[in-house]
Amino acid sequence: GRIKIWDEESFLGGCPTSPQIIETSAHGFCQFSLCRNFGGSGNLLVTPSERSNETSLWDLNDTIKPQLNFSVKPSATNLMCCRFFQPISAPFPAILSGFDDGRGALFDLR
Length: 110
Fold this sequence. Notes:
The protein is mainly β. Helices cover 5% and strands 45% of the residues. The protein has one helix and nine strands; from the N terminus they run βαββββββββ. The chain has one helix spanning 8-12; strands at 2-5, 20-23, 33-38, 42-48, 54-59, 68-71, 79-85, 94-99, 104-108. The protein has a four-stranded antiparallel beta sheet with strand order 3-4-5-6, with no helix packed on it. A hairpin with an 8-residue loop joins strand 5 (54-59) and strand 6 (68-71). It is globular and about 50 Å long.
């Protein structure tokens, strides 16, 4: 699929810039999740992967390919949801993935 991301500051100025376009190989209805200012600097995006049981992590400074792919062992079925999650006890967000067989996975980004 294709994801388009606009800079919110350009909308506030009344003149939106061209969107950043990310081409993924994922097909389905699972939404993406955006984490702004990760580690005080970059923006990260989590999306479904080409494989139906994987989650991809993108650095928006380098959108040519995903930086990491996360999967569950033994292999889960289809990814239904992926979100950034901020645990109370951790300084960095994690990725929470849910699958259609009822399983969930939490990936720590430290």
